[in-house]
Automatic annotation (TrEMBL):
It comes from the Bacteria. Keywords: Membrane, Transmembrane, Transmembrane helix. Gene3D superfamilies: Alkaline Phosphatase, subunit A. Residues 336-556 form the Sulfatase N-terminal domain. SUPFAM superfamilies: Alkaline phosphatase-like. This is Sulfatase N-terminal domain-containing protein. Residues 1-68, 614-644 are annotated as: Disordered. Residues 618-644 have a biased composition (Low complexity). It holds the Pfam family Sulfatase. It comes from Streptomyces violaceusniger (strain Tu 4113). Residues 9-18, 46-56 have a biased composition (Basic and acidic residues). The keyword Membrane applies.
Length: 644
């Protein structure tokens, strides 16, 4: 309804009221009508420097008669607060967008200097938004914000994966690992913590997408209302970016003229392409097997009659032996264990292997060691375990001279891979008879695992020697609480560990403290090594041969940001002839390899081992097959780039 029609209705109403009023006394003269021409035009809105329009009360525009009417709209009522909110919203939107464009992919690189740069993506985006008409501009702004939010989520995943696995997040392969992460949190910190973590991650992801979309839309609207200022600012920033790029200006070792988001998107696209190609190429590589057609009677002739133990110690990496904050206790344990073995008539040699994984995904290390293939991602693992490439354990089965078993306390459900590995029987956590408490992620202490192995397999009478693959899990993160070594006669069904677990440290207190986590990690390795060597000394005999190694380094919080992927490996035997066959390897005596000990790729071990213990030991290593090459893998690079 127009202002004139409103005034007309009010006048008619006043007139009717006057005609009906009782005629007592003289009728007062109506107030003089304001001259519409004399009334200055009042703006319907005010606009401040942020581009916010304040609603002006309707009475200032449409009614000069009712000056007592209350103002409408909180911006008009509290203009100072409105301006503060407007400036704050615009500033936070800008900060959020710049944070997303400059966010590093490693936790250690998140510092103020990382955000003191000009992202070219911001300059390009501002230019595009200034050129578009209003409807298209708002749609593009929201879409750009959602895309930027998605990239931010991927950056956050990169940070987490670099922190725990020493590599960035693979958008094709790694979604399955999020489910493993949830299971790990549940096992280590409880179901409540796992549920809270899942809810928090979902809420965070939605919030990032929504807030980033709103932030870009906010900036777009402000720029449109202040197009002259926005155009000049964009032009200046673009000019500065070009000059700094041409001159190579840097801040804290990174280019001031940043194009990190563009480079990261290109890198992700390239990794996706390589990942998709890798599956096809790796299938061809896995089909080539140096020993695939070797008859069983020509395999492992140098170990006939020996009880073989292939044992993986969780997270047992080079840092355990060389990091000054961890090494003293671990080194002392290894030296004492070597002396005890020597006293009992055993000898040992050790070296280094470079694992295909880091910080986690232990099954990739196990499969790389046993198959002679470089298996550093889930696609490769699925491909090889679905095929018939011969694993080291299957080689023992092929001979017909050994019974082959797997002791897998970390497996809590069906494990069809047991057939691929050539294991006659697999004992998982449900088959080992444990009645005690879990120790965070680890379902049972290593000493109990070994005692169950003795009771179920090794201690029984057999018509052929035993080949066993044993996984020890007590040194799995978060390294609290840690079991204690007890007399073997007291192990029983594991109930004795209830008091030990209850008296242990809280995993949350240990895992979040950089000093405690290193100390407790070292103690867990000492426990695992002592349990294994104690078992060999108590239950081993002249025919016992032990091969034990780590599957990967611990996460970077323990091993350090620039740690290698090396893990220790050792062979222990009572029969001197067993170690004589590997004298040409150059491994060092004892359980603790030194800094100058040979370093091999973990994928090279299978062929070297089969060669050393075949019919012609000490000869040339079997022809190297392309199956040991990591070059086709999209995950071959050990770490993400240090700076974006």
């Amino acid at each position: 309804m127009s202002r004139q029609s409103s005034s007309h209705q009010r006048s008619e109403t006043d007139k009717g009221t006057t005609e009906r009023a009782p005629t007592q006394g003289p009728t007062p003269e109506p107030p003089p009508q304001a001259d519409p021409e004399a009334t200055p035009d009042l703006p319907a809105q005010r606009q401040d420097d942020t581009g916010e329009r304040d609603e002006v009360p309707d009475q200032e525009v449409s009614s000069v008669h009712n000056t007592a009417a209350a103002p409408k709209g909180w911006r008009a009522k509290y203009p100072a607060v409105a301006r503060t909110v407007a400036w704050t919203a615009t500033g936070l939107s800008l900060a959020l967008v710049f944070l997303a464009l400059l966010l590093p992919t490693q936790l250690s690189l998140i510092e103020p200097s990382a955000f003191m740069r000009i992202p070219v993506e911001a300059v390009f985006g501002a230019t595009l938004l200034l050129m578009l008409p209003s409807p298209a501009r708002r749609v593009v702004a929201v879409l750009a914000g959602v895309v930027l939010g998605a990239l931010t989520i991927l950056n956050l995943l990169d940070i987490g994966f670099n922190e725990f696995l020493g590599r960035g997040f693979n958008v094709v392969l790694d979604w399955i690992l999020l489910d493993d992460a949830q299971s790990y949190v549940k096992d280590a910190f409880g179901e409540t913590a796992a549920t809270a973590a899942v809810i928090g991650v979902v809420v965070l992801a939605i919030a990032v997408l929504v807030l980033m979309g709103l932030a870009v839309l906010r900036i777009s609207d402000v720029m449109a209302r202040n197009s002259a200022v926005a155009t000049r600012t964009t032009l200046v920033l673009g000019t500065v970016w070009v000059m700094c790029a041409a001159l190579g200006v840097q801040v804290a070792g990174a280019p001031f003229a940043s194009r990190s988001t563009t480079a990261l998107v290109q890198d992700r696209a390239e990794r996706v392409r390589k990942t998709l190609n890798d599956e096809r190429e790796f299938a061809k590589v896995a089909a080539v097997d140096t020993y695939g057609d070797t008859p069983g009677d020509q395999l492992l002739t140098g170990l006939r009659g020996k009880d073989m133990m292939f044992t993986f110690i969780e997270s047992y990496g080079r840092s355990a032996i060389e990091d000054p904050a961890i090494a003293p206790g671990v080194d002392k344990t290894l030296k004492n264990a070597t002396k005890r073995l020597n006293k009992a008539g055993f000898a040992s040699k050790s070296g280094w292997l470079t694992s295909a994984t880091y910080g986690g995904s232990s099954w990739l290390g196990h499969s790389t060691f046993l198959t002679g293939l470089w298996i550093d991602n889930q696609n490769r693992y699925r491909t090889v375990t679905a095929g018939d490439h011969m694993s080291l354990t299957r080689a023992f089965q092929r001979t017909g001279a050994w019974r082959t078993v797997g002791i897998m306390p970390g497996v809590t459900k069906g494990w069809p891979e047991g057939k691929f590995y050539g294991l006659d029987h697999v004992y998982d956590s449900r088959d080992l008879g444990y009645k005690g408490p879990k120790f965070s992620w680890s379902t049972m202490p290593d000493q109990y695992t070994l005692k169950a192995f003795e009771h179920l397999e090794h201690g029984k009478k057999r018509d052929k020697p035993l080949m066993s693959e044993i996984i020890l899990t007590s040194s799995h993160q978060p390294w609290a609480p840690i079991p204690k070594t007890i007399p073997w006669s007291q192990v029983g069904d594991g109930s004795v560990y209830k008091a030990i677990q209850k008296a242990g440290k809280n995993p949350a207190d240990v895992f979040t403290d950089p000093n405690k986590v290193k100390a407790e990690y070292g103690k867990s390795i000492q426990y695992s090594v002592n349990s294994l060597i104690d078992y060999v000394l108590k239950y081993g005999n002249k025919n016992t041969v032990l091969v034990f190694l780590g599957d990967h380094q611990p996460l970077s919080r323990v091993s350090g940001n620039n740690a290698s992927r090396d893990v220790p490996v050792a062979i222990v035997a009572h029969d001197k002839a067993v170690l004589d066959r590997i004298s040409h390897w150059g491994w060092e005596d004892g359980l603790m390899p030194g800094a100058k000990a040979p370093v091999w790729k973990m994928s090279s071990f299978r062929d070297r081992f089969l060669d050393a213990y075949g019919p012609n030991p000490g000869g040339a290593t079997a022809p190297s097959s392309p199956s040991t090459s990591p070059k086709a893998s999209p995950e071959a690079a050990p770490k993400a780039s240090a700076k974006r």
